[in-house]
Write a structure and sequence with these properties.
nine-stranded antiparallel beta sheet, alpha+beta, 5 helices, 225 residues, single chain, 2 domains
């Protein structure tokens, strides 16, 4: 009886493909989470920590709706339900991707640039993410209005900034080693003309800011591979 139910459940090729896609996404999510928690290896493309679970949910919802659609017999009812299903999925996809994109920018750093020491051996991956610190945002806003009193008093893109960190690259450059950042962070405004500089102390990269502007601060040291 159980085997018959299983055959009915996955009797369509599309169902079997969807099922194994979901299994693959779930397994991948568990593996990369375990690597971060146990081995200290984090994804360079940190957005995948959000996009993978989101895709899992969206595919599962779409699969469920398609199963309901296939059970409908009346053409008119199938047409109405099919139209609603497409609209619902488009809405969920738009909302989900918009939220995930914004949340990923605030929660996970992304690759900014790779830095190689003069010896050509030691290397670090510089990561950056949006800086949510309200104090630095307000400092930049005040400085912008001081130089341009007629400017927009509300917070604009120019008032935001980035948080920079540096790490040793991990396997295949798909990961970075979380524990390789020894100390510090660097904060530079979105519209700032400051430069992120590095000086090498053997295998250690010392990062600092050249020509900092309002809201720019910090330095850091990271141990290379």
């Amino acid at each position: 009886m159980k085997r018959e139910k299983k055959r009915r459940f996955l009797q369509h090729t599309g169902d079997r493909i969807t099922f194994w896609v979901l299994v693959g996404i779930m397994a991948t999510t568990l593996v990369i989470s375990a690597l971060r928690g146990i081995a200290g290896l984090a994804l360079v493309d940190g957005g995948l920590y959000l996009y993978l679970p989101l895709s899992l949910v969206l595919i599962a919802v779409g699969w469920g709706l398609s199963a309901v659609f296939r059970r409908l017999k009346k053409p008119a009812l199938r047409g109405i339900f099919g139209t609603l299903m497409v609209l619902v999925m488009l809405g969920l996809l738009t909302i989900g991707m918009t939220y995930a994109s914004f949340a990923a920018g605030l929660s996970f750093p992304h690759r900014y640039v790779s830095m190689t020491a003069p010896d050509g051996v030691h290397r670090l991956i510089v990561m950056r993410m949006l800086d949510p610190d309200e104090t630095r945002i307000e400092q930049r806003r005040q400085a912008r209005l001081a130089s341009n009193p007629d400017g927009d008093e509300k917070i604009t893109a120019e008032d935001w900034g980035y948080v920079y960190t540096a790490y040793a690259p991990g396997p295949l450059d798909l990961f970075y080693r979380v524990d390789s950042l020894m100390e510090g962070e660097v904060y530079i405004g979105y519209a700032s003309k400051a430069e992120l500089m590095v000086e090498w102390e053997d295998a250690i990269g010392h990062f600092y800011i050249k020509n900092p502007e309002t809201g720019d601060s910090g330095e850091m040291r990271a141990r290379s591979n």
